[in-house]
Amino acid sequence: MIAASDLRAGMTFIQDGKLIKVLDASHHKPGKGNTVMRMKLRDVRSGSTYDTTFRPDEKFEKAMMETKAVQYLYSQDDVAIFMDLETYEQYELPISTIEAEMKYLLENMEVKIQFYGDEVIGLTPPTTVVLKVVETQPSIKGATVTGSGKPATMETGLVVNVPDFIEEGEMLEINTTEGTYQKRANK
């Protein structure tokens, strides 16, 4: 069992027979009354998200998750296909449940998928990925790193704010947890 105050983003627990993933968790102390935990949660199976509050001492059953290293092969229709690197077994995940993570995936990229028993419930991309800029405004001569930046569309469709000196065709390192530009990738 795990207390609501110990739940963090990325953790999964069981509530009323449903598998729930924590998207965001924060303590909230109103002017009067007791402290509550504000949570943004997602029902893993249905994909629906909702906001709720819990008392910090409420207890939940922690879901025992297993993680496997897999390779992203391709997307077809509304599913993404992954292959286990040891057994060569293939897994299908509905794109609707991993829409945010798909913006960081390139074919043949290694990722980790999570299992609850035999059920595939999600994936974790690497913390940083190298993506190519396919569209951005022309670079500004004399631009510095401290400028306000400009939007750049990456090869996966992800839009990231980048410094003014970045040009189309450049390879950039992107942080997948925050969806932000890190630096130019080594050539």
From TrEMBL:
Family: Belongs to the elongation factor P family.
Protein's cellular compartments: Cytoplasm
Gene Ontology terms: cellular component: cytosol
Any Gene Ontology biological process: peptide biosynthetic process
Entry-linked CDD domains: S1_EF-P_repeat_1 (cd04470), S1_EF-P_repeat_2 (cd05794)
NCBIfam families: efp, PRK00529.1
Keywords recorded for this protein, A-Z: Cytoplasm, Elongation factor, Protein biosynthesis
Taxon lineage: Bacteria, Bacillati, Bacillota, Bacilli, Lactobacillales
Pfam families documented for this protein: EFP (PF01132), EFP_N (PF08207), Elong-fact-P_C (PF09285)
InterPro entries, alphabetized: Elong-fact-P_C, NA-bd_OB-fold, Rib_uL2_dom2, Transl_elong_fac_P/YeiP, Transl_elong_KOW-like, Transl_elong_P/YeiP_cen, Transl_elong_P/YeiP_CS, Transl_elongation_fac_P
Keyword GTP-binding: no
The keyword Cytoplasm is annotated on this UniProt entry: yes
Major subcellular site: cytoplasm
UniProt source species: Enterococcus devriesei
The Translation elongation factor P/YeiP central domain, residue ranges: 67-121
Gene name linked to the record: efp
Function text: Involved in peptide bond synthesis. Stimulates efficient translation and peptide-bond synthesis on native or reconstituted 70S ribosomes in vitro. Probably functions indirectly by altering the affinity of the ribosome for aminoacyl-tRNA, thus increasing their reactivity as acceptors for peptidyl transferase.
Pathway entry: Protein biosynthesis; polypeptide chain elongation
Segments forming domain Elongation factor P C-terminal: 129-184
Protein name in UniProt: Elongation factor P
GO terms of molecular function: translation elongation factor activity
